[in-house]
C-alpha cells in the first residue's frame, strides 16, 4: 500500500525514522555504558517493539497494564513507577518487573520487603525541588504541591536498607543543560545517600534525538554519576524514541464560514491529538504556513460538538478542497496513547511505513471499540 492509499484518519509511524532515533540513543549507551529504556507512556506501539528492543535495554511502565505490555512484547528489562500501587496488583507487578520504584517512604514500608524477597531491585523516586520549566506547571513534577517523589525533609534513613537506587524525573521536552542543573540539585540534596546506592535513574523528558540537543553534556552527566559514585545510570525517554517519526493523515470533509474560512476534518484535536489542547501547541502540518504567510487561511477543526475542538489556523498556497488529505507531523508521541472516542468519534487506524516505502495498516478500529468502553 502506498502512503496516498491509506484510510483517514490514520496514524503512520515511519520505521526508518524510528530506527534513526534509536541509533542516536544506542550511541549514547555504547559510549557511556548507560542503559536507556522506552517510556511507554509516550509511545507504546507494540508493532515497533521488536525494533526498539534491538537498540534499547527494555521498557518502563506507569502501572500494571504498561508493565504487562513491556513484559509480553519487549521481553527485556522491565521497570515500573507509580505514585501509589494497588495492593491487589503488587504480586503481578513484582512477578514481571525488574526495577520497582516507589514514590514515598510509606509505599516503601508497605511493599519493599515483598519486592526484595522476589529478588527485585527497589528504588525510591526523589523530588529535588528544582524546577527548570517555564509556563507548563501541569508537566512540572517539582511544582509546589507536586505529588511526585520524596523530598529531602521526608527521608527516613532506617527505611533505605534494601533500596538500591534513586530515581528522579523533572524534565519535559528539555535539553541537557536542564538535566545538569537538576543533577546538581539532586547531588546537593541527596548526595549523602548516593554512596550506598547501586544505580540512579535520570527519568525522562530528555529530547536526545532533537537536532539541537547537547549530547556531550548529557554524557558528561552520566559519567559524573559513574565516576563520582560508581552508579549504573538509567534514562527512560519516551518522546526521544519516536520524535518526528510519526504522522496523522486526515481528510477535509466540509467547509464553514464564520468571520474566516473553516475546514472540518475527519480527525479531532480533543479525540486524536489532545496535547494540542492540553499543552497547548500548534502541530506542524506539511505544506502549510503560519497565519499571513500564504494567501489562503483556514481554521482547521474536528467533527465533535466541543466548540474548542480546533487544531489551529493554517495558511496554504491554494484553496483547500473537499477530499484533500492533510498530513500533521510529529504525531507518534503522546497521540496514539491518549486517543479517546468522545462523541463516538472513530479512532484513527494505525499504520507503519516500512523502510522500503510501503505502508502497512497494522490496526483498524470500529464501532465495537467504542461500545466496549461503555456499560
TrEMBL record:
EC number(s) given by UniProt: 4.1.1.96
PANTHER family found in the cross-reference section: CARBOXYNORSPERMIDINE_CARBOXYSPERMIDINE DECARBOXYLASE (PTHR43727:SF1), DIAMINOPIMELATE DECARBOXYLASE (PTHR43727)
Residue span, Orn/DAP/Arg decarboxylase 2 C-terminal domain: 62-331
Highest taxon of source: Bacteria
Biological-process GO terms, alphabetical: lysine biosynthetic process via diaminopimelate; nor-spermidine biosynthetic process; spermidine biosynthetic process
The protein's required cofactors: pyridoxal 5'-phosphate
Protein name listed in UniProt: Carboxynorspermidine decarboxylase
GO MF terms held by the record: diaminopimelate decarboxylase activity
Pfam families recorded: Orn_DAP_Arg_deC (PF00278)
Organism: Paenibacillus barcinonensis
Sites where the protein binds substrate: 239, 275
The encoding gene: nspC
Keywords, comma-separated and alphabetical: Decarboxylase, Lyase, Pyridoxal phosphate, Spermidine biosynthesis
